[in-house]
Amino acid sequence: QVQLVESGGGLAQPGGSLRLSCAASGFPFNIYAMSWARQAPGKGLEWVSGINDDGSDIVYADSVKGRFTISRDNAKNRLYLQMNSLKPEDTALYYCRKMIDHRVRAGGGGEYDYWGQGTQVTVAS
Are 70 and 81 in contact (CB under 8 A)? Predict the structure, then answer.
């Protein structure tokens, strides 16, 4: 049974940092690409970043490039998102998603078959 459990969200001030974590289980984590997406209140799902199976290929949305860093630890079956220089517009429910193959595509392309329940990030002073 595939499970993706996000954690690490919370309240941060503008300019602050948070680190999200996604614990994966029920599938061979090291052979699948993974990604982060977010959904702000009243808005659609926005792709944030993706990483291929071994971490050698990484892509970001323009809205987070230079501020967010995606990474993975295949030994621990964990996906991470380090978020720095947070802005109020980063406020959203953040989801960890599993892709159906090992490749990552720019712009969030590709297919996803599982995602977690999400972790809330709120950026406010």
Answer: yes
